[in-house]
Amino acid sequence: MAAHKLLLLPGDGIGPEIMEEVKKVISWFNAQGKESFETDEGLVGGAAYDAHGVAISEEDMAKAMASDAVIFGAVGGPKWDDVPYEHRPEAGLLRLRKDMELFANLRPAICYPALTDASSLRKDVVEGLDILIVRELTGGVYFGEPKEIRDLGNGQKRGIDTQVYDTYEIERISKVAFELARTRNNKVTSMEKRNVMKSGVLWNEVVTETHKNGFEDITLDHMLADAGGMQLVRWPKQFDVIVTDNLFGDMLSDVAAMLTGSLGMLPSASLGAPDPKTGRRKAMYEPVHGSAPDIAGTGSANPIAMLASFGMALRYSFELVEEADLLDKAIANTLDKGLRTKDISAAGDKIITTAEMGDAIVAELTALTA
Ligand code: NAD
To answer: What are the φ/ψ torsions at residue 187 (nearest 5 degrees)?
Structure first.
């Protein structure tokens, strides 16, 4: 049995605390004897700066490049507010994304039955919700040139950002969306603004063309991104996979995330191109939230976003769909039993610690497989 190679980068603040809970789950899977995960650990963010004077060392970067998947906690905190800009904690995260060429960002919005009341939307709108937003992460208006504030010389300035997409960028992100839809409910909705943007016209054409070349088993719809935003709030369950560009994806994924309640519940994945030899994509899995310095060290962090991020690694890097479903079920059952960390608690709930939540989920894994 070949071992799956994981690099764990806990980072700062609550990062190391929630990573401890992932280690328990990894040990549990290893103990079952069906799969083997080999873990190595590195430093990133402020922790790396303190040890090496940089936000990630070359040695840890090399480990990340050689791993099957990076499991990332969170970086940052007030302690590093004054470090030089190029060494700030976030620089470690950006370096990983850039060097690993992680162009596809996956953000699921899943509403656990026990938490339907935590959403700001009506229960019937979010109950059972399970959608996936696939956002293009390395192109578009955040990176296009020219990007400047130009002095027009007449007392006016002009702020310029440029939305640029090439065919290959749209093709590869739409392939990711179609492939993921095959592991879910076979439906992709592509969102752009072809009514007012040339890049939107091209986006629409290339997604349609890619669909014709080997993905016709998937249902493809197109929607203008503004209408998509409305539909996400009106009736989100109409979607399965949404594919969109960097800018629209940034906003739409935040909207979708909030359909489900707390920041402590939201996992994410970032994928690169498939390796020509092995077919495996470079990948990094991380919670959406940050290092939460306000609660670091108190044992109150919710580890579920981190654990669900590991669940995404099982599903998308290792095609261990049954194991990923099992972990999701263990999380859902734990919540069904009324166990809550502080962030997802309501008045009268018994509040448990980060470690107790991890232990409860591991116990549920055991119960589900007994
Ligand atoms: P944050 O996500 O760290 O925290 C926002 C709020 O949510 C805080 O009140 C926090 O206590 C709470 N929270 C977050 N995760 C939680 C969890 N798992 N369980 C319970 N409560 C949780 O965002 P912030 O406060 O704006 O940023 C703090 C630091 O994190 C900053 O240095 C920021 O730059 C950094 N950050 C890092 C990442 C990342 O590593 N990917 C992402 C966002 C922010």
So the answer is: -135, 130
Q: Is the sign of the CA dihedral 4, 110, 21, 282 positive or negative?
A: positive
Report the C-alpha gap between 161 and 163 in whole angstroms.
7
Taking 80 as the threshold, does the pLDDT of residue 1 lie above it? no
What does the alpha-carbon distance between residue 84 and residue 271 come to, in Å, rounded to a whole number? 29
Asked if 226 is an active-site residue, the reply is: yes
Q: Is the CB of 10 under 6 A from ligand 1?
A: no
Average pLDDT of the chain, as a whole number: 95
**b/e 186-195 (16+ beta carbons within 10 angstroms → b):** ebbbbbbbbe
Measure 291 CA to ligand 1 centroid, in angstroms.
5
User: In 3D, which of 343, 326, 255, 366 has the Cα closest to residue 18?
Assistant: 343
Provide the pairing of β-strand 144-151 with 130-136. Answer: unpaired
* Length of the chain counted residue by residue: 370
> pLDDT per residue over 296-327, tens digit each?
999 999 999 999 999 999 999 999 999 999 99
CB proximity list for 281: less than 8 A, separation 6 or greater: 271, 272, 273, 274, 275, 316, 317
Question: Candidates 85, 107, 263: which one to mutate for ligand 1, based on the most atoms within 8 Å of Cβ?
Answer: 263
Which residues 6+ apart lie within 8 Å of 157 measured at CB?
149, 150, 151
pLDDT tens-place string over residues 176-217: 999 999 988 999 999 999 999 999 999 999 999 999 999 999
